[in-house]
Amino acid sequence: MKRRRFFQTLVVAPAASAVLAQQPVATQNPAGPPPAEEMPKLEATAVDQVADAVPHVFDAAQLAALRKLGDLLMPPMNGAPGASEAGAAEFLDFLIGQSPADRQQVYRTGLDTLNAQAKTRYGKPFAGLDAAQADALLAPLGEPWTYDPPADPLARFLVAAKQDVRTATMNSREWNTAGAAGGRRTGGTGLYWYPID
Length: 197
Fold this sequence. Notes:
This protein is mainly α. The chain folds into two domains: 3-50, no CATH class; 60-181, no CATH class. Helix content is 55%, strand content 0%.
């Protein structure tokens, strides 16, 4: 059992036992199974609605900046979902949390730098910027590509995040489902990352 399902079951189990305890005790019917009106009726809830994913590595401001960055780098188009619809930021939060410390530092520093530059220039965090303001901060992505990684920490982060957001979006269940529904041929139909448990 995956960790998230285990904890979700722990959350639901006490509620289910409390509901069952409130049901009247049915008497045994030796002639067969109890009538349908004596069977307890339980309202079922999808486990994903009971518990939400908790950020692993990024704080709230960093995760909001990563979501905004994902929206800008991979918006929805031509019937395909964007990074937000695919949950790319949440997946990257898990992935970066399991990555080496230097990769975690690149992301944390990059997201903090985006937020700091946004507050300095526009008086609000990166997640609150409009498209034109955000584009001004993402100017390092317009630099010509080279074999060597950029020396600037923000540029290094943006290059890594661009690739990671794209990969996480295109390998999501939502992207796969939209591709199959739209008749697009995808190389790995049925193969995608599953939400983190």
